[in-house]
From TrEMBL:
Entry's EC annotation: 4.2.1.17
Function: Could possibly oxidize fatty acids using specific components.
Reactions catalysed, as given in the entry: a (3S)-3-hydroxyacyl-CoA = a (2E)-enoyl-CoA + H2O; a 4-saturated-(3S)-3-hydroxyacyl-CoA = a (3E)-enoyl-CoA + H2O
Protein name per Swiss-Prot or TrEMBL: enoyl-CoA hydratase
Family indicated by similarity: Belongs to the enoyl-CoA hydratase/isomerase family.
NCBIfam families: PRK05862.1
Annotated organism of origin: Sphingomonas cavernae
Length: 257
């Protein structure tokens, strides 16, 4: 499929999705949304693909939702179309999606990165929810995901002042998994994604699903959910293979069954 606002390429079992509106610092408009959802749905369906990476340019992951597209909209337009609720599909992807963030990840860009399963940051990354400066608020989950990632104090300060967080602070605060030199970011993210794509596919989905459950349940229910999924994997061929391969000191060969 050809996209106008994205570059999508398969690097072996890794789907690399590059936001590509450089003239607008990858601002997220309706076309980006539609294309990103289409690309992620194709990725989720393709048995040959095991993990996706979403990235931008070295200057900007995405500088936010497209302010020029939003500026003329009224309440009826926004509420009536449930503006950008379509982004819920990103977090609903069943296979893992890594955000590789260099440069600006602001507003909707920060929110898109946080919808991914984890963030790898280039050392020049800058995260922020500066919507308050436009007299609005985060609208794609930022007010909920940012406090879960960095705690209330930093999230509240960032939302109320619009200040940006650099890569070093983002790692210290738990927003990003790791910081790497910006020039090596995509390569590192694809390598990390390849490692994940090399794991048994059902175990990958189960691990993702249960870590996400930690943000939706109380501890006892979450532990119960984990245990049931863990038990369930003993009904798979790949569990037999994985444990046999360990005992026989060889790599496992997965069937995804
Ligand atoms: C539309 C944008 C844009 C955006 C940048 N551009 N951000 N267009 N929407 N969010 C455009 C600029 O208008 C400009 O186009 C070109 O990209 C380059 O940007 P500059 O500002 O010239 O670059 P620079 O001086 O380097 O400054 C970079 C920047 C700044 C600090 C990132 O662009 C900026 O502050 N952008 C807005 C950040 C923001 O407020 N994001 C939150 C958006 S609200 P021209 O044509 O002039 O050259 C949001 C809500 C989410 O995200 C919820 C939705 C449901």
């Amino acid at each position: 499929t050809a996209y106008e606002t994205l570059l999508v390429e398969n690097r072996g079992p890794v789907t690399l999705i590059t936001l590509n509106r450089p003239q607008a610092l990858n601002a997220l408009n309706s076309q980006v949304l539609a294309e990103l959802i289409a690309a992620l749905e194709a990725f989720d369906k393709d048995d040959a693909q095991g993990c996706a990476v979403i990235t931008g340019s070295e200057k900007a992951f995405a500088a936010g939702a497209d302010i020029k597209e939003m500026s003329g909209q009224g309440f009826a337009d926004m509420y009536g179309s449930n503006f950008f609720a379509g982004y819920d599909r990103v977090a609903a992807t069943r296979k893992p999606v890594i955000a590789a963030v260099a440069g600006y990840a602001l507003g909707g860009g920060c929110e898109l990165a946080m919808m991914c399963d984890f963030i790898l940051a280039g050392d020049n990354a800058k995260f922020g929810q500066p919507e308050i400066k436009l007299a609005v608020t985060p609208g794609m989950g930022g007010s909920q995901r940012l406090p879960r990632a960095v705690g209330k104090a930093k999230a509240m300060e960032m939302c109320l002042t619009g200040r940006l967080m650099d890569a070093e602070e983002a790692e210290r605060s738990g927003l990003v998994a790791r910081v790497v030199p910006a020039a090596e970011l995509v390569e590192d993210a694809v390598r990390t994604a390849s490692t994940i794509a090399g794991m048994a596919p059902l175990a990958v989905k189960a691990n993702k699903e249960m870590v996400n459950a930690a943000y939706e349940t109380n501890l006892q229910m979450g532990i119960q959910f984990e245990r049931r999924l863990f038990h369930g994997l003993f009904g798979t061929e790949d569990q037999k293979e994985g444990m046999a391969a360990f005992v026989e000191k060889r790599p496992g060969k997965w069937t995804g069954k």
